Amino acid sequence: MRVLILSDSHGEAKLLSEIVKRVKADHVIHCGDFCTDEAELPKVPLTVVRGNCDWAQVPQEQIWEGEGVRFFITHGHKYQVKTTPLPMRYRTEEVGAQIGCFGHSHFPFCEKVGDVLLINPGSISYPRGFPHATYAVLEKTDKKLAVTYFKTNGTLITARGYEESWA
């Protein structure tokens, strides 16, 4: 399974579409602040949530499951993600998910907190506290789960990422 995780595109619908076409994921997760009409989002298998800057009437939280992995998706502004990962961890556990995906801070973050893997893909439009606009790709096989970060032009970022055995 290959999942594209991105956030905070802030109206950059063309860039969003370019990334989606390049990555060729089985599923796309957008963690909010897309700031376009919902009709401008890519027509692919997509889970999207509303960020604090969005006007489209999409859910503020979503659950998505793929290949036995349960994802909790939210923008993060209601979970203090700019100061601590703990509220995201607690909410992700509360809904029975193994992975929590969020945006809002525009800063790429991937860390296992307790039994929960938290992923912030950064922002594809306006990075903060990191020199590049970024997105993440999660790949799961029978034996491992890996998260890799990329610049918006597709260049690998080796300073971020995660990998673990997955049974």
UniProtKB/TrEMBL annotation:
Q: Which NCBIfam families match?
A: yfcE (TIGR00040)
- Keyword Hydrolase appears in the UniProt entry: no
Q: Which InterPro entries match?
A: Calcineurin-like_PHP_lpxH (IPR024654), Metallo-depent_PP-like (IPR029052), Phosphodiesterase_MJ0936/Vps29 (IPR000979)
Cofactor(s) this protein requires:
a divalent metal cation
Which family, according to UniProt?
A: Belongs to the metallophosphoesterase superfamily. YfcE family.
- SUPFAM superfamilies tied to this protein: Metallo-dependent phosphatases
Enzyme Commission code(s) on record: 3.1.4.-
In this protein, which residues make up the domain named Calcineurin-like phosphoesterase?
1-141
Question: Species name for this entry?
Answer: Laceyella tengchongensis
Q: Name one GO molecular function term.
A: hydrolase activity
For the keyword Secreted, the answer is no
Could you identify this protein by its name? Phosphoesterase
Q: Which UniProt keywords apply?
A: Metal-binding
Report the domain of life of the source organism: Bacteria
Q: Name one Pfam family in it.
A: Metallophos_2
